[in-house]
Amino acid sequence: MNGVAHTSRNFAAYAERHGLPFLCVRASAGAHTESCVAAQSGELRTLDLRRSSFAVRMEKDLQFDPLFWRYAGEIDRQLRAFRPDIIHITGPSELGMYGAYFAWRHGIRLAASWHTNLHEYAARRLTWLTRRLSAESSANVERTVEDGALAAILRFYSLAKVLYAPNKELCAMLERATGKPCHLMQRGVDTELFTPARRTRSADDKPFVLGYVGRLSIEKNVALLIRIERELAALGVFHIRFHIVGHGAEQDELRRRLHNACFAGVLRGEPLATAYADMDALVFPSHTDTFGNVVLEALASGVPAIVTPDGGPKFIVRDGQTGFVVPDDQFAQIIATLAHDLPRLDKMRQAARAAALNCSWNAVFARVYAAYAPAREAAMTPSI
Known about the structure:
By secondary structure, the chain is of the alpha/beta class. The chain is built from 15 helices and 15 strands. The chain has a six-stranded parallel β-sheet with strand order 12-11-10-13-14-15, sandwiched between helices. It has a four-stranded parallel β-sheet with strand order 6-7-8-9, with helices on both faces. Helix 9 links the parallel strand 11 and strand 12 (261-265). It is globular and about 65 Å long.
């Protein structure tokens, strides 16, 4: 599940646990459904709106439906019945655009959280075109697209009264660009599901298992896995096995070029938790992730993570303690060192678990609600 959906579902679960009135409107690839769960002091309503067959697929689990306007009346009716104090959107999706529109139309304060660096995704998805250009021209095209996309996204976010982002760098960028306050909206982890206790490998299981969990797509920089295997071989490190969880457009290329890898496909729940626990280290080479749910899940499983200095994962990993924060060209050397220093690996596994125990979804969303307060107090009386 992508990070936005994962966070949104946990947000709704938090509201249900704490008896908070909450209306969650979601786009769905499945059936069109509506549900209502009574809570102690309110109710949790969910409205899943099925995307049409004209939805544009940007990745296997990411779509944009240009015909979503057909649900305008239904969303409006739900809002009139629910009478929200705040509308919270998660980005410039179809639903995000509707959320911003209805907030304006009914005079409801708008909150917006940043979850995905869409401008960076847009630039990296141009490789089908830029690879035919010179290195300089390719860089110029990608930079122009990225800058233009970022400017458009920031104009959209400036519509909100209060902003959220998963790391301090993004918060600072949003505050500079919009002049609006931005608060941290990090992500939590289920430390009962993700735990070292689920490890099934025996102590004498020799291969050093490198895990990757996430979309197998170009913006995740998964091509680095191929380079890592090649460089480890050059360093004389051959007792390595990749355990890759996820799917995406780069899967066939990875299957062709990785010599010792297991492709588990999409895993959820206990099978995913077991896959984490059986890893010796998580390799997460993305430069574009704003947070990195999988990194936190790995730490909770007692698995140190190796990440790049770009994006959100570097804020999760304590370099040298719960993992490593290194550039692409140092991944192989770090892995080689760790594979031959098992006492250090054991120490890092314990530190990773201890760090993850300090994270919880309750703490994350309590801070989100606390930041709503000023906007709610200053809100205009809704005309709904």
